[in-house]
Amino acid sequence: MGGAGHSFVEHTSEVELHLFAPTLPALFAEAGRALAELMLGEGPRAGETVTAEVSVTAPAREALLAAWIDELIYLSETRKAVFTRFELTRLADGALCARLAGIAEPVLVTAVKAATFHDLRIAEEGGQFVATVVLDV
């Protein structure tokens, strides 16, 4: 299991997202990709490319993961885009900076409202970072 990945467990009005990756930056990028997959489904992803740069801060890495996902949700609503590519330029000391690229005016399969703090966790297991975050849909 050297790469990154994710899986979903669906519940009524929420989705539990399980993430794994070899590094913490890769884990945060995987969270972005998982969010995009949930919002867009698995179909083709064509359309105009949009870009953005973001910065988020939080007191702990779990809170930073929730803030990161919430920022991506906010940008999808305000920019009318879903971001599918993530270049993390900084992830340290409770701060994350990233360059994003994605699809303008996509058709959403699932509207995601927010990341929650319910069962939110990040841990190191077996040489990888793993995380669980529940999304309100």
* Number of H- or I-type helical stretches: 2
Q: What is the architecture at the second tier of CATH? A: 3-Layer(bab) Sandwich
Radius of gyration: 14 Å
Q: Report the top-level CATH class.
A: Alpha Beta
Helix share of residues?
25-40%
Structure description:
With 137 residues, this protein is an alpha+beta fold. Helices cover 26% and strands 45% of the residues. The chain is globular, with a radius of gyration of 14 Å. The relative contact order is 0.26. The mean pLDDT is 93.
Name some characteristics of this structure:
137 residues, alpha+beta, Archease, Possible Chaperone, Chain: A, domain 1, 5-stranded antiparallel beta sheet, 3-stranded antiparallel beta sheet, 45% strand
Secondary structure blueprint with pairings:
Elements: E1 5-11, E2 14-21, H1 24-40, E3 49-57, H2 61-78, E4 81-92, E5 95-104, E6 114-115, E7 121-125, E8 128-136
Antiparallel strand pairs: 1-2, 2-8, 3-5, 4-5, 6-8, 7-8
Helix pairs in contact: 1-2
Task: Describe what is shown at a glance.
This protein is of the alpha+beta class. It has one domain (5-136): Archease domain (Archease, Possible Chaperone, Chain: A, domain 1), CATH 3.55.10.
